[in-house]
Amino acid sequence: MQKKFKIEVDCANCAAKMENAAKKIDGVNNITISFMTQKMVVDVDDSRFDAVLKEIVKTCKKVEPDFEIYL
Amino acid sequence: MTKKQKRVLYRIILSAVLSIGIHFIPVTGVWQLVLFLIPYLIIGYDVLRKAVMGIINKEIFDENFLMAIATVGAFLLGSYAEGVEVMLFYQIGELFQSYAVGKSRKSITELMDIRPDYANIEQDGQISQVDPDEVTVDAIIIIRPGERVPLDGVIVEGTSTLNTSALTGESLPRSVYPGDSIISGCVNTSGLLKVKVTKPFEESTVSKILDLVENSSLKKAKAENFITKFAHYYTPAVCLGAALLAIVPPIFVGNFLEWFSRALTFLVISCPCALVISIPLSFFGGIGGASRSGILVKGGNYLEALAVTRTVVFDKTGTLTKGVFAVTSLSPAEGISRKELLETAALAESYSGHPISRSLREAVETALDPQRVSDVEEIAGNGVVARMDGKAVAVGNARLMERLSISCQENNGIGTVVYVAVENQFIGSILISDQLKPATQKAISGLQAQGVRTVMLTGDSSQVANAVGAQLGIDEIHSELLPADKVTKVEAFLSQKPARSTLAFVGDGINDAPVLSRADIGIAMGAMGSDAAIEAADIVLMDDDPAKIALAMRISRKCLRIVKQNIVFALGIKALCLILGAAGLAGMQAAIFADVGVMVLAVLNAMRTLKVKE
């Protein structure tokens, strides 16, 4: 399932770093984090959507503590 | 400024005041260190934390790490004031950068924002404003002058002119009357309109466009990925360089502390901020500028590909031509008036839904009385025979005339020829053809001037195709193609195209969708094009104007040029500063000022992509 979220990232480089880290999470088919539009689009297995999303947010916060997501 | 930026600003002021104040306190040794640590931690705690987090997460080499090493190094050297200053300057630079980028980003998104805020609904005689999301299909909405059309619909009452410039980039106002369908995103300029909604908000034109534009920044250009990869190698490389600078020269010339301090300066200089920020901004600006001109580009990668397009393949009908058939000439036989010929043909065809019949009816200016016609019989692939005012009438192609053995004067015009006979007597012929769009000639010559090879593919007869092609001066023409043939043709072109160049296909129909996705760049006609074509395309021309292709190519080249300028400029200045720093000619403060300066210039340069010259 594909879903779009509004996020807050401070720099283009951090967005790229978060994207790379989140791509490695099990259950994530695809993820794009755009600094320009401040949007995150995730494509995640339907069955475990919430769990995987939580994992993504955790990973992103680890890479960039200032990361915010509006669910 | 955002909350976050304001917080940083307060920290900067507080830390600056404190560090200046400390100069007047007569302490030395450990106490001086403790005092300087206060402003240092106020200004730099987040950088230090991120640097540590980076090490824990095995994402060591980033700018936080560089700054942490450089300032901690300064403290180790005993130059406490310098350590605080460097962190202070770094934060000022970062604040400035985030402010500048935030501003630029906002001005781009504002340009592209065509989202309507509300819709007016009439309920029990009261007009109330509701969220466009909540309006259902078939509801009647009211649009006052000056308001944006919130949803797609059909006018039930009122006439007005619409400004479609937000959608098409064209400032020519469009007049609308009851019965016309209007699309969301236009601005109602003169009259009050009552509109019956035909599509829910999620499916309306505005939603679709916003979706396209928003998703466009998710498709990254190669140049953008290059930066990510570049940073991956660059930071470890400069760290290694700094380490060598600190260790190798002192072995030969001694004075370890001096070289250590130079190595720290080297690290500060090496931050690749300007590069990292300006490139996505350039692409974003390019996409924004294009969308203002009615060209929707679905990603930075397509903008990049468009800059090196050497072959443009056009579908004919609906792309180069209007896709609407119209009567272009009347050739009555002797003793017959033009009006009589046209009316006879239009009346006989008045019951048919064929596009040819429609164009005949549209050419007649006066109202026709269908009661005059009876016994209509359609002969598939030939035409129509009927009785009109009691007389036998035959309207159709040459085959019909042959079938009824009516001798007629042959018409060799380009297009579809309709022969008309009354009581087996030929009374004339009518030429119906598809007309070229007014901008088509400009489109082709504009592309050829840029050195692009133009090709036309069509399912139409070779006679029509060659005539159109010759008129436009198209380089290559392939006619009588089935939809599947178009794919094979485009595949052949793809294998023949010059190295490192791309091929664009321009089309509008449902049949074009496979070709659109097969070509390097698929360009669809937005207003007339089918949803399937728009979905499959990479670039959508909102006003169906083929001349926009040359404009889009110019925008893409300008954007790429700016990206390259920024890469060369930022790296060049960086290299120069690195050398100066290594030679001991530039201090840390100078290094940070250089960094911020380069960043600001690069961002300003990136913002030029927004401006589009017609």
Summarize the structure.
Chain A has 71 residues and is an alpha+beta fold. Helices cover 38% and strands 32% of the residues of chain A. Chain A has helices spanning 12-23, 49-63, and strands at 2-8, 28-34, 39-44, 68-70.
Task: Characterize the structure shown.
- Chain A is of the alpha+beta class and 71 residues long.
- Chain A has a single domain (2-70), classed as Alpha-Beta Plaits.
- Helices cover 38% and strands 32% of the residues of chain A.
- Chain A has 2 helices and 4 strands, in the order βαββαβ.
- Chain A is globular and about 30 Å long.
- Chain A starts with a strand and ends with a strand.
- Chain B has 614 residues and is α+β, with helices and mostly antiparallel strands.
- Chain B contains 21 helices and 22 strands.
- In chain B, a hairpin with a 3-residue loop joins strand 13 (373-379) and strand 14.
- The radius of gyration of chain B is 34 Å and the shape is elongated.
- The model of chain B has no long low-confidence stretch (mean pLDDT 83).
- The chains are: A alpha+beta (71), B alpha+beta (614).
- The interface between A and B is medium-sized, with 20 and 26 residues.
